[in-house]
UniProtKB/TrEMBL annotation:
Enzyme class, spelled out: hydrolase
Full protein name: Adenosine deaminase
UniProtKB keywords: Hydrolase
Gene source species: Acidithiobacillus montserratensis
EC number annotated for this UniProt entry: 3.5.4.4
Amino acid sequence: MKEESKIEFESFVKHMPKVELHLHIEGTLEPEMLLRFAQRNEINLPYKDIESARSAYQFKDLQSFLNVYYLGASVLREELDFYELTKAYLQRCKQQGIMHTEIFFDPQTHLSHGIALDVVMGGIRSALAEAECEWGISSALILCFERDRDAESTVSLLHDAMKIGGIAGIGLDSAELGNPPRKFQEVFQRAKNLGLHRVAHAGEEGPPEYIWEALNLLKVERIDHGVRCLEDSGLVERLLEERIPLTVCPFSNVELKVFPDLESHNLGKMIDAGLHVTINSDDPAYFGGYLNENIISTVNCLERDINDIILLQKNAIEASFCTTEKKKQMFSALENYVDGFLS
Ligand code: HPA
Ligand SMILES: [Zn+2]
């Protein structure tokens, strides 16, 4: 790409109204905030300063990342911490042109530190409500169950969260290999009965069978990651037939060694197969960039173009858990922006 068109392309992405569908709020904990909260809450960390925290962000796989991620999450203790963390991410959304975001949180890790669920959810929800009011950024909150924990307490946790309110859906995250979706059938059935949305991480490190299970047994509406689906043509057919969205996170996949580099990422192949793919940042504080950086670098490395970016964003609007009316508004905001840019 010529320098001039590169600048124009980057500006197109940065100002475009966007939607993010795969974002762990604990994964937005930047080292500065990590150290500040650790000090405030008197938590000992193995990092003395920002540089040593950043230099620990080198991962060989999902588990090595999760060890660092859960250590980071351990500094979150008070409602104010959850509030400030979420507000800081939403401030980024404002800077990045994100008009709607669907946010995961991992209550089980916080409960294991003795923090009450209403402290966690109270802080997150106050920030979400303020961002909607102040900046017009809408959101949905998705409670994730950690699949490497027991499924036993998940139903009571779901009911506790429902009493507090503000949950749009449930998800499944953490260490995938050896923890198949079938373990969580009961809680997903309960969530469906309660009218909640359902998503699950599958086919990130785990095999295509885990994507089949998430669809058939958990009845999920979206697959998080799902990049390994291309190994199974029958699965691709199913994903196409039902137009199941896949929330792909390119920086995450490279940092966790799912692909050796961005150039080898299969997002382009997924687009060409006609799959309902979206692009997202996953854990941006740990993986080197937020949504715009993911879009710009991936599209450059895969030699895709502006039409792919528009398609990915239309896919994200369609795949969101917004009302039809809200989706219409977002589609027209996107179309007006594209028309304005191209005219
Ligand atoms: O990328 C991820 N995969 C699984 N679990 C996670 N929890 C935070 N990020 C991730
Ligand atoms: Zn994720």
